[in-house]
């Protein structure tokens, strides 16, 4: 892709003169929620993430200056009413022939063209998610391929497709992070891991990788892992210089958790709360987050209740729509409706605001990036990262 897209991964400026609470921004907020629920047909290839341990099929772009990831390769995206089209001086998002917004797809990062001394392409070690360099440090999981496999996860897909390597070393990740910072403006690092069959669940290895990245690049690092058997491991992770942690329960509906993530259900939602309390004590309020996936058949009242309880102890519940991943056990499902997701956001976000927790309190990671959820359209503008956060339109 040529340089006509944009200046690499840096976002274009938000629309000038727009009132953050005005009707134009409300329409944009709803548009992005629609794109994340219905997907986007693309007439040109754009940088995207396929497979992986978290929300996958993430086409990365800026819509009117707002960072967003939207499904572009999922089966339902092929029939989306929304399309990304080339224009004379850029790109636009259209529906039924009507132009709705400008868009700037992320280009291929410069560092993707580099390789290690051993000949491993940098892009197989870590990808750039808009402005965050991200990697699954162990691209395997003790639950994959057996009765404990998480139904939404595609961690084995990327490895099988040859898009990554099985295990990244701290040295590799540090080397790539420096390049991502210098060549493409990465502002933080997000490292996750498949769960290992060890008492710490892989937390100490991903933290060692994060420590190497931070020491080499100076970037703040979030690491993500399951609750370890001994919660003192969380303190060890903090002592390695990690800035924030993600400990992902996935859902607050216990029946859904048992169905879609049996191993996590054995830890139990109460077990996650114990881990979060220890993590908040170690890292501080707003620097601990959890994914909450919508669209798996959950009771919305349980989701809202669980999110509010997590917020009460200083945890950021990062609410995302399900993105069915090809090769996962949920590949034939579709994303939940934008209206359903918006209703949950509207019930949870006021608690975040009242508690003073948001993207501005996150040091790194998904809660800082925000692009995989329309929650970023509800929160305040965060001066630390320069992104635009818009109010979500109400359809009551």
Are there runs of 5+ residues with pLDDT below 50, and where?
A: 1-24, 51-55, 379-396
Give the C-alpha Rg: 19 Å
Residues in β-strands, percent: 15-25%
What is the strand tally? 14
What would your notes on this structure say?
- This protein is of the alpha/beta class.
- Helix content is 31%, strand content 17%.
- The protein has ten helices and 14 strands.
- Strands 1, 2, 3, 4, 5, 6 and 7 form a seven-stranded mixed sheet that branches.
- α3 crosses α4, α5 packs across α7 and α8 packs parallel to α9.
- The protein is globular.
Short description:
This protein is α/β, with parallel strands linked by helices and 396 residues long. 31% of the residues lie in helices and 17% in strands. The chain is built from ten helices and 14 strands.
List the helices and strands and how they pair.
Elements: H1 23-38, E1 41-42, E2 48-49, E3 58-63, E4 66-70, E5 82-87, E6 90-95, E7 98-105, E8 127-129, E9 132-136, H2 155-160, H3 170-184, E10 188-192, H4 203-217, E11 221-224, H5 232-239, E12 244-246, H6 254-260, H7 262-283, E13 288-294, H8 300-312, E14 315-321, H9 338-355, H10 366-369
Parallel strand pairs: 1-5, 9-10, 10-11, 11-12, 12-13, 13-14
Antiparallel strand pairs: 2-3, 3-4, 3-7, 5-6, 6-7, 8-9
